[in-house]
């Protein structure tokens, strides 16, 4: 299991690899040996459901892989104290917000996959603004999962006369708009 966890947290596994691995698991589950080619007795999606929902609680590799990569993105967002997060901030982000960094042709395959999953990550985040000093006003997706800059563009930043790198605390003080 630890080998699977390592690879799932490192790469988005190719679909063909996931299908082959799950095929081997299904075959073992139903027949106990090798690579049997007959159909399973229950749909794989049902087997992968939690036990409380009638499944066997076997994790779908594809879902597990996506969740593991999303966790990497989450660790960057919360600025988890880890060597990997520090390295990402220094080497990959270079003082650009995680939400604002562009996917470039020079990005590694792994990094591109983390960045591509940002949309999925942001749909599942709930921002707690607090005093607003940790949230970027224009670049973080703190309003309904979307960054103000993405929605309104450069013109809005210019019209508001509030710098692009401003924090939410620049416009909200003591829970009031200023």
Automatic annotation (TrEMBL):
This is Zf-RVT domain-containing protein.
């Amino acid at each position: 299991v630890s080998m699977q966890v390592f690879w799932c947290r490192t790469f988005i596994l190719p679909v063909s690899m996931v299908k082959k691995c799950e095929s081997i698991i299904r075959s073992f589950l139903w027949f106990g040996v090798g690579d049997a080619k007959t159909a399973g007795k229950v749909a794989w999606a049902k087997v992968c459901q939690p036990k409380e929902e009638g499944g066997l609680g076997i994790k779908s590799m594809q879902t597990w892989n996506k969740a593991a990569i999303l966790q990497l993105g989450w660790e960057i967002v919360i600025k988890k104290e880890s060597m990997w997060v520090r390295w990402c901030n220094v080497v990959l982000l270079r003082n650009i917000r995680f939400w604002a960094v562009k996917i470039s042709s020079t990005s590694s395959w792994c990094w591109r996959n983390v960045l591509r999953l940002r949309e999925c990550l942001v749909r599942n985040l709930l921002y707690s603004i607090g005093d607003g000093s940790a949230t970027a006003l224009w670049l973080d997706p703190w309003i309904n999962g979307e960054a103000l800059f993405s929605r309104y563009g450069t013109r809005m930043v210019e019209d508001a006369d509030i710098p692009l790198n401003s924090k939410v605390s620049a416009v909200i003080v003591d829970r009031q708009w200023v």
